[in-house]
Every structure is written in structure tokens, then in C-alpha cells.
Amino acid sequence: MAICKYDIIKEIGVLSENAKDWTKELNLISWNDRGPKYDIREWSPEHEKMGKGVTITAEELKKLRDVLNGMEL
Questions:
Q1: Tell me, what DSSP letter sits at residue 21?
Q2: Residues 8, 68, 14, 17: is their CA dihedral positive or negative?
Q3: What b/e readout covers 32-53, taking b as 16+ CB neighbours within 10 angstroms?
């Protein structure tokens, strides 16, 4: 399995927490020394393990915000 290097630049917010104390978070992360992107995924306590997630650019995050603002929840 390939090693994935990451650096959490900014912890933005916790979206939820499960019974095993893993949290789903929105963070700004640099993956493999590349430019930072926004990232939503589950993390174990202390961020030593992670689940699958989605990484998006700032422009994609703005479009997602616009889509969500247009939804009736």
C-alpha cells in the first residue's frame, strides 16, 4: 500500500461524531506536498487514521456552497 503524506493546514469544523469517537471533518489539507485543498472525511482521534473522503478546490467549495444555499432543507 502506498504511503500518503498529509499536512492539516487548517481544521475548519467537525460535521459529526460516531460512537467510536471518529469525527467527520472539513479541513484544509496538503496531500503529498501539493497545494492545500478542502477535504471532507472521517478521522480517528488524534488524526492518526482516516477514512475515505472527498477533496475539492476552493472554487468547487464555492459552487457547493451555492448549490446548498439553493436547496430547501
A1: S
A2: negative
A3: eeeebbbbbbbbeeeeeebeee
Cα–Cα distance between 37 and 49 in angstroms, integer? 19
3-23 per-position pLDDT tens digit: 789 999 999 999 999 999 999
Sequence-separated (6 or more) residues with CB below 8 Å from residue 51: 22, 41, 42, 43
Grid cell of 51 as nine digits: 477514512
User: d(Cα 49, Cα 40) in Å, to the nearest integer?
Assistant: 14
Side chain identity at residue 33, one-letter code: D
Distance CA 36, CA 40 (A): 13
Residue 12, CA atoms < 13 Å, CB-side half-sphere: 13
